[in-house]
């Protein structure tokens, strides 16, 4: 079965950002510019955090919204074809979770590919790879 | 070296102008963080400058490892301290380091003074000056944070640094608060912000840092991540946090109690790490890039004074030092009371350690009749009673009247005015931290560049000597602490949290820098640590500091440590050796 990245328990998140930093390391770089996962506080750090990442919708609105067909459905989640993308940000508006992140440097969307690298660096069991359809 | 790191963002509040300077020279020489910041301080702070004048620079710096490696999570601030009148240096976690580095800068310098209150934002690498008149005078620093969180962009990758009322009113130990619960805590950066009419600084950053050798970097990262998450360090700081120190220090009689009249409670204090974790711990937080999550938030549930079944819930961050200063130092008994005091200093924006020591001095001075209700304005400070202390904290933050204005400058100023110098627990003008372990701790407070327990951790040497039944000569102790403080200069130039010092040995640092294209031998790193330490000492000497004649509070010598009473002669000899080491064989650097 294919696997998707799932936010198992955001209540355990401590805001270390190790997931987001791990995501950038996929590209052999540091920082957050091309990270497909983000963490934000829920009205201040004392009230906890949300982890913002693609949930691999069965019928993804980001793909449906793209006027040039640059986002296509994949076995898990979607794939972006940067060469087709015109940088219009319609996909960003289409995702109700804000999980279509934006690379300001290349002016293209960044969407999680569910590789699970971030989960292997989460020290506190907030995120994990799980089989599609199990959660 | 990453070109983003070597950029210094300069901001002039007087002229409302900002520009970027390329300073590869500084970062090549000193890596970043403390090493670069002390060079900038030498360059930009005129000799004899009034710390609260426009000419005192605020310097923030990060280093090559932020936030690329686990626990490379700290930012360094350097300035001339309005509290001690010499070197001001403070380190802060939270998101400050990540935001500054990913905004594309290695350092940021603020000079001048705005005519009206402003706050500064740095978004997409651009500086904006924003009107802060509506934020000035708010009673709670928490409100300032909430408002800026809502009106400013960059959520998730930004730092919100701000001051409270104490910073506005120039209390010399006012803090700068980051993200809530983290601070540039010591030596009065908050007052320097206030003197510039600067209420807050918001920095967001989501940039890229190029990695010259990705495979080696990935491998070393994984290795360090595993070492960090599987080490004792992780358990020690993650489980109970720094509050885990209270129980063992109380047990060996090294916990300063009631202005150091005693060093232990009869029983384990109600605010030990264990008891807080059992009864109050509500959430843990981490600084960016740190898997440990040592930040512990207590839930304080308080009933409404008049209505039944009506509560308010407050989150309060606790650590060893605030628990000592606002707990044992004031003879507090109930954990709830200590948490209330910690919350108050957070709200007003004051250094918890100094505030606690100031209140402890005032309590003893009051009990000895050096001051009366005439000075205190009708308040009767007493050990273990939170209500007078809460009101005194409010009056200090607001600088109400002559007495509270004096208290707002620390125990050195207050005791010079009202007496009681023998029990005014400051070292070099900075109030005592929470370890009375022996000569090592006292030598650290006296000789450390910041007069802080973290400078050279003499308390750790004391505890080690205690366990092994060993003792060191004054010269040996000085040499050991000098070497430790020098080593820490490298960590604070990278900038790696001191809690990770066991992971980042010289060889690991060399390897980490190499993956980033920065070649330094372990010998280079050792030399650099000594150089930075000497540059700090040179700044202090320039501003009139003298190690040899530094006063030592009598109370610290009279109250026995677990290693017995510390002799002044011992400390003077150790200070002589320390001075020799700090000045080097060829005089000052």
Continuous helix count of chain A: 4
What percent of residues of chain A adopt helix (DSSP H or I)? 10-25%
Unreliable stretches of chain B, pLDDT < 50, 5 or more residues? none
Looking at CATH, which topology of the largest domain in chain B would you report? Aldehyde Ferredoxin Oxidoreductase,  A, domain 1
Number of domains of chain B: 3
Q: Hey, roughly how much beta strand do the residues of chain A contain?
A: 15-25%
Secondary-structure content class of chain B? alpha+beta
Going by CATH, the architecture of the largest domain in chain B would be 4-Layer Sandwich
Question: Could you name the CATH homologous superfamily of the largest domain in chain B?
Answer: Aldehyde ferredoxin oxidoreductase, N-terminal domain
Helix content of chain B: 40-55%
Largest sheet of chain A: 2 strands, antiparallel
Mean pLDDT over the residues of chain B: 96
Strand content of chain B is: 15-25%
Cα Rg of chain B = 22 Å
- Write down the CATH class of the largest domain in chain B: Alpha Beta
> Using CB atoms under 8 Å apart, which protein chain pair has the greatest interface?
A-B, 31 and 44 residues
Strand order of the largest sheet of chain A: 1-9
Number of helices of chain B: 25
Q: How far is the first residue's CA from the last residue's CA of chain B?
A: 26 Å
Task: Give the topology, please.
The complex is a heterodimer of chains A (135) and B (589).
Chain A: E1 3-7, H1 18-25, E2 29-31, E3 38-41, E4 49-52, H2 61-65, E5 71-73, E6 78-80, H3 90-94, E7 101-103, E8 108-110, H4 117-120, E9 127-131
Antiparallel strand pairs in A: 1-9, 3-4, 5-6, 7-8
Chain B: E1 7-12, E2 17-22, H1 24-30, H2 33-44, E3 58-61, E4 75-80, E5 87-92, H3 96-102, E6 107-111, E7 118-123, E8 126-131, H4 141-151, E9 158-162, H5 165-168, E10 176-178, E11 182-184, H6 189-195, E12 198-204, E13 208-210, H7 214-230, H8 232-240, H9 246-252, H10 273-279, E14 281-285, E15 295-303, E16 311-318, H11 320-325, H12 335-348, H13 352-367, H14 373-376, H15 386-398, H16 401-407, H17 411-418, E17 426-427, E18 430-431, H18 439-447, H19 453-456, H20 458-468, H21 474-494, H22 506-515, H23 522-542, H24 554-558, H25 568-583
Parallel strand pairs in B: 1-6, 7-12
Antiparallel strand pairs in B: 1-2, 3-4, 3-6, 4-5, 7-8, 9-10, 9-12, 10-11, 14-15, 15-16, 17-18
Helix pairs in contact in B: 1-2, 2-21, 2-23, 12-15, 13-17, 15-16, 18-20, 18-25, 21-23, 21-25
């Amino acid at each position: 079965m294919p696997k998707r990245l799932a936010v198992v328990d955001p209540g355990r998140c401590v805001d270390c950002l190790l997931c987001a930093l791990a995501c950038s390391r996929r590209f052999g770089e540091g920082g957050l510019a091309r990270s497909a996962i983000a963490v934000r506080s829920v009205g201040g750090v004392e009230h906890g955090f949300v982890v913002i990442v693609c949930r691999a919708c069965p019928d993804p609105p980001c793909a449906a919204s793209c006027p040039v067909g640059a986002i296509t459905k994949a076995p898990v989640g979607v794939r972006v074809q940067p060469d087709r993308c015109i940088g219009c940000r319609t996909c960003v508006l289409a995702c109700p979770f804000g999980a279509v992140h934006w690379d300001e440097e290349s002016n293209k969307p960044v969407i999680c590919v569910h590789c699970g690298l971030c989960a292997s660096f989460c020290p506190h069991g907030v995120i994990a790879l799980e089989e599609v359809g199990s959660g | 070296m990453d070109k983003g790191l070597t950029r210094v963002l300069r901001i002039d509040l007087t002229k409302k102008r900002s520009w970027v300077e390329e300073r590869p020279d500084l970062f090549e020489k000193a890596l970043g963080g403390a090493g670069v910041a002390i060079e900038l301080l030498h360059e930009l702070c005129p000799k004899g400058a009034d710390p609260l004048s426009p000419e005192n620079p605020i310097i923030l710096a990060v280093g090559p490892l932020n936030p690329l490696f686990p626990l490379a999570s700290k930012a360094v601030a350097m300035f001339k301290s309005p509290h001690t009148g010499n070197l001001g240096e403070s380190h802060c976690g939270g998101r400050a380091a990540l935001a500054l580095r990913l905004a594309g800068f290695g350092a940021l310098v603020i000079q001048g003074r705005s005519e009206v209150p402003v706050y500064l934002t740095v978004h997409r690498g651009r500086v904006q000056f924003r009107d802060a008149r509506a934020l000035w005078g708010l009673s709670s620093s928490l409100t300032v944070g909430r408002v800026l969180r809502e009106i400013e962009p960059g959520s998730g990758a930004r730092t919100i640094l701000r001051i409270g009322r104490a910073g506005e009113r120039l209390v010399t130990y006012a803090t700068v608060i980051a993200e809530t619960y983290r601070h540039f805590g010591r030596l009065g950066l908050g007052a320097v912000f206030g003197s510039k009419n600067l209420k807050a600084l918001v920095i967001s950053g989501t940039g890229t840092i190029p990695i010259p050798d990705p495979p080696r970097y990935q491998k070393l990262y994984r290795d360090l991540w595993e070492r960090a998450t599987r080490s004792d360090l992780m358990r020690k700081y993650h489980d109970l946090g720094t509050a885990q120190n209270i129980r063992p220090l109380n047990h060996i009689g090294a916990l300063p109690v009631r202005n150091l009249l005693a060093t232990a409670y009869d029983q384990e204090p109600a605010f030990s790490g264990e008891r807080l974790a059992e009864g109050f711990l509500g959430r843990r937080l981490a600084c960016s890039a740190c898997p440990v999550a040592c930040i512990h938030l207590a839930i304080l549930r308080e009933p409404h004074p008049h209505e039944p079944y009506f509560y308010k819930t407050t989150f309060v961050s606790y650590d060893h030092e605030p628990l000592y200063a606002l707990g044992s130092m004031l003879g507090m008994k109930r954990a709830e009371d200590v948490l209330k005091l910690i919350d108050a200093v957070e709200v007003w924006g004051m250094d918890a350690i100094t505030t606690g020591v100031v209140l402890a001095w005032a309590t003893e001075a009051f009990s000895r009749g050096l001051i009366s209700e005439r000075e205190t304005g009708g308040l009767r400070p007493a050990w273990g009673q939170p209500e007078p202390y809460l009101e005194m904290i409010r009056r200090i933050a607001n600088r109400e009247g002559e007495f509270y204005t004096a208290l707002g400058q620390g125990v050195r100023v207050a005791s010079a005015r009202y007496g009681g110098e023998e029990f005014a627990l400051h070292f070099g003008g900075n109030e005592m931290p929470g370890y009375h372990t022996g000569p090592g701790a006292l030598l650290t407070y006296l000789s450390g560049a910041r007069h802080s327990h973290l400078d050279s951790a003499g308390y750790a040497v004391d505890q080690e000597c205690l366990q092994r039944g060993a003792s060191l000569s004054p010269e040996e102790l000085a040499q050991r602490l000098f070497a430790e403080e020098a080593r820490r200069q490298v960590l604070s130039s990278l900038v790696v949290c001191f809690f990770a010092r066991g992971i980042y040995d010289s060889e690991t640092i060399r390897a980490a820098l190499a993956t980033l294209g920065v070649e330094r031998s372990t010998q280079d790193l050792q030399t650099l640590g000594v150089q930075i330490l000497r540059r700090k000492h040179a700044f202090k000497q320039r501003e009139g500091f003298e190690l040899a004649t530094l006063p030592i509070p009598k109370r610290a010598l009279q109250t026995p440590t677990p290693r017995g009473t510390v002799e002044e002669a011992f400390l003077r000899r150790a200070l002589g050796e320390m001075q020799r080491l700090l000045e080097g064989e060829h005089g000052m650097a």
